[in-house]
Amino acid sequence: MLSVTREGAYGDLLGRYFELPSAPSLVMLPALDAPATGAESFMAPFVVTRITCLPNQLGMKREIPPEDAFLVTLHLVGMRHHETWVRGRPSVVRGYVPGALGIVDLRDEVASYLGNPLDALQFYVPYALVRAVARAAGMAHVSGLACAPGLVDPVMCSLGAAVLALFERPQRAGSRVQQHLALAICAHLVHRFGNNDDVTAAASRWPLQLQHLQHLH
């Protein structure tokens, strides 16, 4: 895994990669140290950033330096032309409807080209968090997240609407409401998009194991 000491690709730093002066964000699970037992926990924050690029802010954006995290994009408005670049080359070129998802692995030196205005929620999901949620649900072999670009997932659309409501009514970072919502989002992402075949058997264990994860906070 990469050794990353700088701030992650969220908030104003993510905004700068999109050539924005700032970007509103919610720190839904604050960064915590690993517990005394040595179990891997939420060692990096779970953060949602809203990225909005207007018609005069299109074109090629800055490459995001690699780090041990995923960036899950939930498009709030449709766009006809978007390019995801990986290691200096176009990887996915397509349009997106409102509610469409995209997941990128930030180890891959990712950048974006915007052919149309963008309004999206960007969920910063550290590898450590994916592994902690997966293990709690008995899905120890999950090592990442992936989905077909442009997939519309109704559950993520509903969770995204709840996140937007929090942007309108800000609370302190890591409030109980934010933590519960963050854990619901992470659980869904791992269950729906985790790269593990043994998903069905683990699904029944979510309620009990999510309570355990909440006690870590």
Mean pLDDT: 84
Count of helical regions: 6
Outline type: globular
The count of strands amounts to 9
Pick out the low-confidence regions.
Answer: 1-5, 34-42, 197-217
Structure classification: alpha+beta
Q: Fraction of residues in helices?
A: 25-40%
Radius of gyration: 17 Å
Spatially, the strands of the biggest sheet line up as 1-2-9-4-7
Can you write the helix and strand succession as a string? HEEEEEEEEEHHHHH
Distance between the termini: 25 Å
The profile of the biggest β sheet is: 5 strands, antiparallel
Strand content: 25-35%
What keywords describe this structure?
single chain; 217 residues; alpha+beta; five-stranded antiparallel beta sheet; four-stranded antiparallel beta sheet; 9 strands; globular; disordered N terminus
Task: Explain this structure.
By secondary structure, this protein is α+β, with helices and mostly antiparallel strands. The protein is built from six helices and nine strands, in the order H-E-E-E-E-E-E-E-E-E-H-H-H-H-H. The protein has helices at residues 11-17, 127-136, 154-168, 176-193, 199-203, 206-215, and strands spanning 25-29, 46-53, 59-60, 69-75, 79-86, 89-96, 101-105, 110-114, 118-126. The strands form two sheets. Strands 1-2-9-4-7 form a five-stranded antiparallel beta sheet, with helices on both faces. It has a four-stranded antiparallel beta sheet with strand order 3-8-5-6, with no helix packed on it. Strand 5 and strand 6 (89-96) form a beta hairpin. It is globular, with a radius of gyration of 17 Å. Residues 1-5, 34-42 and 197-217 have low confidence and may be disordered.
